[in-house]
Known about the structure:
8-stranded mixed sheet; Aminopeptidase; acyltransferase activity, transferring groups other than amino-acyl groups; 2 domains; alpha+beta
Amino acid sequence: MPDDAATVPLPTLPAGYRARRLVLADAAAVTAVVAAQDVADTGEVMVEEADVVGDWQRPSFDLATSAVGVETVPDDAASNSGTGSGAGSGAGSATAQQPGVLVAVAEVHRDRAEVAVHPDHRDRGLGTALDHWVLALARARGERSVGSPVLEGSAGDRLLADLGWAVRWHSWVLALPEGVDVPERPLPAGYTARAAAPEEHRACWTLNEDAFLEWSDRPRDGYEDWAALTVERPGFEPWQLRVVVDEAGEVVALALVQMMTTEQGGRERTEAYVARLATRADQRGRGLAQALLVDVFAEGRRRGASLCTLSTDSRTGALGLYEKVGMRVTSSWVNRAAALD
């Protein structure tokens, strides 16, 4: 039985770095590290602070024990201690220390890990040290394996491959090119697409979890965890959760779109990202998902989005569906995992 409260010591790091626990106030700095890694690997920013805060505010995630940051040791702090970061690299809070610059982060939630190292600090052993910490924490919590999504062929992918992490599945980010629309597919008679009402949020959660657990081997997320990533995520607006309801008013399909504005090539770009798309099992084959895609992309463009994106993975079998409606793969990812038996 997994023990989500188990803890392990902070990682031992190379000289010049120290590890510390993260706090909510670190969200912006963590976002900056992940964004720098994104740009180095993909050429674009794929994260915003709301993603980090949403993950951290899940009731099932204990930030104090499930995440770690790596920061540089200021020169004067190292000279005063006379030890660099070697013996002190496992120090807990940096509250009583002169703060350094956050350059790497790692977190573990159940059997999933996220690790990011700023590209200016790669090839210094930080990724390997954080990998060892991830494995130790997941093992202490009773997980059978732990996995992480990495861009295929990236520095992170190569590191995990060298460390023996095997590919569990593939995933892809797809975009609808500017000027291209998803082919219209009218809803069948009796169905309506609209924004979800607050009283429908729990029905959306149930439908979402039922659909995803058909192919995802994980525990069922509680409503509060789901809400933290969706309707309680920073920046959420009611129009972003779209549903299809039948004649009886029951939610039979849903889509969640998240808006993100980043600077790309010296200019701002707003992206509408479909984070959730699901249809109730007994309602499939009627074009509801395609109709919702048309709806959410139109709503996103109405609010300034020039790019419409989503992601899918090989467990769903949906890649061909998205390609048929005009979407194109922009990046390919792998989920690599290490067995902990």
